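@channel anyone free to eyeball this complex?
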Amino acid sequence: MTNIKALKGHIIYTKVKDTFEVHENSYIVIDNKKVVGIFKELPDIYKDISIIDYGHNAIIIPSFIDLHIHAPQYLQMGIGLDLELIEWLQQYTYRNESLFSDVDYAKKIYPTFVDNLYNEGTLRSCIFATIHNESNKILLDELKKKKLSAYVGKVNMNQNAPNDLLQSAECSYEETKSFIDYFTEDLIKPIITPRFAPCCTSELLAKLGKLSMKQELPVQTHLAENKKEVEWVKSLFPDSKNYSDVYKKYNLYGNQKTLLAHSIYLSDEEVAMASNNDNVYLVHCPDSNGNLTSGIMPVTNYLDKGIKVGLGSDIGAGHKMSMPSTITSAVQYSKLRHVFRNEERVLSLSEAFYLATNVNGSFFGKVGSFEKDNFFDALVIRDPDPLVNYLKPIEKLQRFLYNASSNSIVERYLEGEII
Amino acid sequence: MTNIKALKGHIIYTKVKDTFEVHENSYIVIDNKKVVGIFKELPDIYKDISIIDYGHNAIIIPSFIDLHIHAPQYLQMGIGLDLELIEWLQQYTYRNESLFSDVDYAKKIYPTFVDNLYNEGTLRSCIFATIHNESNKILLDELKKKKLSAYVGKVNMNQNAPNDLLQSAECSYEETKSFIDYFTEDLIKPIITPRFAPCCTSELLAKLGKLSMKQELPVQTHLAENKKEVEWVKSLFPDSKNYSDVYKKYNLYGNQKTLLAHSIYLSDEEVAMASNNDNVYLVHCPDSNGNLTSGIMPVTNYLDKGIKVGLGSDIGAGHKMSMPSTITSAVQYSKLRHVFRNEERVLSLSEAFYLATNVNGSFFGKVGSFEKDNFFDALVIRDPDPLVNYLKPIEKLQRFLYNASSNSIVERYLEGEII
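replying in thread with the prediction:
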């Protein structure tokens, strides 16, 4: 009944955010779905288990998790990025999402989207779909086929968007419930997804909050991405103390695990709210924030206050469906913020990697680290450029994160199995 | 004797910086090495010329030019980027460049470096080699083999670097002269290359300036990349008014065409110097400047003052040997600068493209545009993802710049010929 195996290679991961753990030419032992331990020499008790030796050119790292990604925006990556948020939504994004009322269109886009998640080594993700359940189901089916793990949310909107993307509060709520019933397996789960406060009335937010509480479902939405948006929310919800409080008021903030994408422009009060709530993840999407001229999250400030900061590619405002790109952009953006805000420290590469693996993984449970009893989710990396063999294992990882393409990923493991 | 042909596809380029010229389903006629014109219908006089039809999925754009790239740093891309400039030079770059005293090492690195230029569609570039002429010759040979165009400089240093990278002023000068004699053809030319002021004594700078003047050779070096570096130059050259003036004093500033990489921290006086000199190119290397926490060039300020701003990948401090990445990073970085300096406008995508093609091209002559009498340097782009065919031609270009890999480049033309 036991299913124990060992992989051999240079094993690299982060246990704490400040340093990479590097185990050169070592074995990682996996019992069924989970990590048993890492060993320089294989202990006698494992002498008869099967060993896969990936050779001295390979590094073995935790696979990536993307905490904020819009599946319908796959084809929109890189398009129309001379605009800012609100104009970009109106001129490109909503028009594009309307196309998903046609299931045949979803059947064209979603398989390629899911293939790209797989190719890029993003084996788990938290996904915004659209309001259209028939198309949303296509997305779930494709994720299942590729054996990827995800939270997928039916998007909810009942105001301030084109009519064909709006549903009544009641209809949006009922459709959310019926979509939830379509989920059947452990790896793919539902998540409550109000698009963002400006697109939802209090009535809709209240219904979604109740549903999240009753069914113990996590929540994903957007928060404080753009200064104009923050002002807009203030005018739409004058009774709320701040933007975070809009969600809080309707039980959509930190009662269950909650992903708040962007979170750039938070008041001190909102920062305190986030730091006092272990269910709250502020999701940093650096490329998206650059592309839409939104700003740069003060990520090290947040981390140093004990806030959980996750990372997301946020395609299509982000232009690369790649967590290595997101990791290195997070580091770059933090350096650029430091240039203008000298008092804020710079994010190191190991920290950004820790966010994309350990922190992002914690949204899914014991995921993202190679410590004992974690699910063994991993990528085996071997750069096709033979010159890379001049580099030390940690340099191979740096090179992969900054420069290599998904061609370097030669094997993908999810919960102990090759997928 | 005539060698006239036409290519068909969606032809896109920039004539002025503010807009893309888009010629859907059109013909570009090439006579020998140069552009004749672009036509929606082929005129009768061309009815018998050969036509290559790349189909309605292809876009045809000017090929890329990289105005600042360090060939020996190829293997260093992405490595050690938690450091700032001076520390990064000392801990990684100089150590790495020392390896090129071994010609066999150059024989391993340079072919791959040149292959990557070719793959990425960078058909012309201005390259820093190392101090080692035997290895530098390998680089020239490889460029010749791949039929690429370049300016290549032997690096000059006689102080403030590890001993094995220093030569006496006399030796450095003589070696530069002897390297120049090794150049034999039109496409590959020499360029005078003092590394940067801190690594050169006045004596060496003076010799190089004289050589540039006498042989009418262009110059490439670094300028005002990092605040500490600017202070250092001030202490090393107390008699010069400012950093630019160090080069000016020794005839290395704008007497011949001059590439000044980075140029982030310029005084008003230096900005005026650059804007009054048509030979001066300030070369923006956004990724490098982010990775080394250097800062962000005020690129739109410079452009609006009439300064020639070029673009460079600056590997290995830049982490992508790709001009599309450099173009989109320049746009992103300008947006991020705008967030902190609201009074400065944002660089548009067409402007960044114009810099990487028209401005960069002008360093090589009539290059970088598809206007009449320009050398026909071009890339044919066809994204392997069939979904991209839903996009309009200009959106295909946006997608390529932001998202696609070099796999999308299906043909490369330099001076009218497929290479």
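from a first look: Chain A touches chain B through 46 residues (CB under 8 Å).
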